[in-house]
Amino acid sequence: MLYYNKSIYLAVINLDDYIIEMLNIRKEFPGIVANDDITLRLKKGEIHALLGENGAGKSTLMSVLFGIYQAEAGEIRKNGQKVEIKNPNDANALGIGMVHQHFMLVEVFTVLENIILGNEPNKYGFLSKKEARDKIVDISQRYGLQVDPDALIEDITVGQQQRVEILKMLYRDNEILIFDEPTAVLTPQEIDDLMIIMKGFAKEGKSILFITHKLNEIKAVADRCTVLRKGKYMGTVDVEKTSKEELSKMMVGRSVNFNIDKKDINADGVVLHVDHVSMKSKASNLHTVKDVSFDVKAGEIVCLAGIEGNGQSELIRAITGLDKVNHGLIELNGVNITKAPIRKRSKLGMSHVPEDRQKYGLVLDYSLEKNMILQVYWQRPFHKHGILQPKAMRQYSEMLIKKYDVRSGQGPVTPARSMSGGNQQKAIIARELEKSCNLLVCVQPTRGLDVGAIEFIHKEIVAARDQGKGVLLMSLELDEVLDLSDRILVMYEGEITGVLNPKKTTPEELGLYMSGAKKQSDTEVSHEQQA
To answer: Most buried of 31, 237, 346, 427 (most Cβ within 10 A)?
Structure first.
């Protein structure tokens, strides 16, 4: 649950002119019209939210503005004058910058090298970094975006990587800033910081286009909001005068239930047993997970909660087989899987919705139907006498696409890489929930999803729990943690520091445990685990 103070950094909006106008934009892809006659007008100094379901055409529209795509119809105006934007260099020349949903960074380059890439300073034909470094340090200090210029991208956190993307825009003196799902990978504290930074940009006169699915964020920082649905323009509203319920209904075409209905817990039998597990950092000899023990029972949802970087991700990777354990035991259905390969864990009944959907969840160059059977392709009816069965693959993927409303231009044969981030997430969730399993490990399951999809996924997770499956959830969304969980395990500095009942705790108390300001004794943790 995020709290914002809208009285801070209020922008003074010039109501006289539009700095950007996208008029009657139409963009087509094979099998789909992504943008169908859309008009969007951005005022100078305002934060303008762009809201819509997964696959509604938001990122496509912004990619047209940034020159990644060329529209089949319509025109773009800046300060009332028609402009041609054929590529991102044209956009940058017009003062338009973009932070993409999936960062466009070279991992083996330093922060400095990524920021100046494509706009390298030179002196007498030689690369000159000193002037660029001074400018980057000055900008980072002025806007509170501190990051080490000499650090490699692969060695810094996701939140710091986003700072690098923002610094790339500011380094180029962009005045129109596009943020595509900027909070999808951030911690609650990083989100609060970003909201303040965005307000500061608007106060300086910069204009911001802000794609998000999170209605709380729109209400907190946006001045106006344009809503898209299935590629069509639904309207532009004054955020202060429009409720979250009205926004969600414009977005999905129906009322959305924000409450999660759950039966009383009926847990019985241990599905996952984690016993004194410890792990060391790959970069140092320090422990990231310290002597952690807990059980997940059939028919309950257990949530690992904590601020990013406190060991939850490492522990999840150990449980799912992505990383090795230095000490301790992990059992699935009574079988020791501490050193077991991922396929064995899958065969024993583990499903996994990973934290990084593109790195661990999908093979991006495979079709959607191939991705849908990644965990079961060796089983019948998909595999017979060593040969894949295309008809069975197609039928199964079409069923999942329909049930989970996975939107793609070419249906089952759509390359996963070409799908929106939210629909990539829905494809993974469809595959993992439909697979026969008794332990469902979900990491940030609703990241990047719209409110309608979140409502559906929450119901599916609760249904899995009610069917007797054990669910291990990791989420940075405090509302999701409190609403979905039957039991919350709080991790701080690699240890479980609290075991909380979501019915008896508050967001404020949970926040104290997550920040390390409050901690249960080892005896209390052990007692709560056994209760």
So the answer is: 427
